[in-house]
Amino acid sequence: MHVRPRQRGIPPLSSMSRRAALCAALSITVVLGGCTSMGANLPPLPSEPAGPYRLGAGDQVRVTVFNDPRLTGDFRVSDTGSVALPLVGLVPVQGRTTEQAARQIEETLSSRGLFNDPSVALEVLTYRPVFVLGMVERGGQTPYQPGMTVLSAVAVVGGFNYRAVTDYVGLTRIGEDGQAHEYRAERSALLQPGDVVNVFERRF
Question: What b-and-e string marks burial along 108-145, b requiring 16 or more CB atoms within 10 Å of the CB?
Fold first, then answer.
């Protein structure tokens, strides 16, 4: 009678051993996943060439209509993106430069028959604010200043707190399509009025 020799090597895993190995692998995956900082997978903030400022809701502007003080004054861009001028009504300025907005007002004055050849100037008095949320000492809004960066905006609201991710932030910005888009932005990234900065919490 022929007897097969006993095979040497690693014995097969029992069902319980296989389950234990699977649980260990899953645990490692969860731990490694937890080490990934919040917001790290967001797309990077695209670099945009410097260009003229474009008006948006919340901006305070001064409109000067030369030779007619009745139409000259300070106005706020409404939530609908318009300024309400005396004798004229609503004039849309959302997304326009100050020069384009001034020309739009001139066209409106001409079309209403108020002036034959109006001359208008428009300047920004106060920009709409930037909002800073998350792991900072005092979250909230802060007035935008030209040249403001992520780091300077965080500094205005008291700086990062001890639980903050300090290398980058989440930044939500309204795109040209009118929709909000969220990006990962470095500390040195330049802000735009209306941006929302979200400082993430460290996992460990």
Answer: bbeeeeebeebebebebeebbbbbbbbbbeebeebebe
Domain boundary assignment for the chain = 60-126, 130-199
The pLDDT score that the predictor gives to residue 105 is 95
The DSSP code sequence of 55-107 is --TT-EEEEEETT-GGG-EEEE--TTSEEEETTTEEEE-TT-BHHHHHHHHHH
What are 160's strand-pairing partners? Answer: 136
Name the CATH code of domain 130-199 (choices 3.10.560.10, 3.30.70.1560, 3.30.9.10, 3.40.50.150). Answer: 3.10.560.10
- Which own/partner pairs from 71-76 qualify as long-range (CB within 8 Å, at least 24 positions apart)? 71/109, 74/125
pLDDT at 36: 58
What distances in angstroms separate CA 67 from CA 12, 89, 111, one per listed residue? 96, 19, 18
C-alpha span between 67 and 91 (Å, rounded): 20
CATH class of 60-126: alpha beta
Residue with tokens 């709409």: 128
State the pLDDT at residue 122: 97
What is the rounded distance in angstroms from the CA atom of residue 150 to the CA atom of residue 170?
A: 10
Token pair belonging to 156: 């205005």
Kindly report the CA angle at 130 between 188 and 44, in degrees rounded to 5? 40
pLDDT of 17 > 70? The answer is no
